[in-house]
Amino acid sequence: MPQLPGQYWTDSGSAPLTVPNDLPTGTYYVGACADGPEAISESNETNNCVASGGTISVQRDLQVWTLTDPVLNGDNYDFSVRLRNTGNPPTVPTATVRRGPPPPASG
Ligand SMILES: [Ca+2]
Ligand SMILES: [Ca+2]
Q1: Per-residue pLDDT tens for 68-82?
Q2: Residue 51 CA to ligand 1 centre (angstroms)
Q3: How far apart, in whole angstroms, are the C-alpha atoms of residue 83 and residue 64?
Q4: Of 9, 10, 65, 73, which has the fewest CB atoms closer than 10 Å, so is most exposed?
């Protein structure tokens, strides 16, 4: 719909915001830009973007919560691992099985 001079265009509602897993931890804001693709030539290109007043905190903390000892079962070892994200945003953790000496104790 074409915008007449001085008219407002409103888009409201709720949209999911997916935080990429590789986004470093930190504090972020949400920005909105008119003419986001910068496809429209304007008399003032410097007033197109606004940042949210509130911020999003990205503070993931994935942990191995429990790990059972491996039990030989035929040619395989069975074990169980339980992972936990104690931070935010929602993150689907993945477990990696490694062999070798145990890692140094933490803390
Ligand atoms: Ca523009
Ligand atoms: Ca503008």
Answers
A1: 999 999 999 899 999
A2: 17
A3: 5
A4: 10
DSSP string computed for the chain: -PPPTT------S----PPPTTSPSEEEEEEEETTTT--S--S-SSSSEEEEEEEEEEB--EEEEEEPPPEEETTEEE--EEEEE-SBS----------SSPPPPP-
Cβ contact 66:88 at 8 Å: no
- The answer for residues whose C-beta is within 8 angstroms of residue 28's C-beta and 6 or more apart is 55, 56, 57, 58
Nearest ligand to the C-alpha of residue 43? 2
* In the chain, where the domains are located: 26-58, 60-100
Answer whether 0.70 is exceeded by the pTM.
no
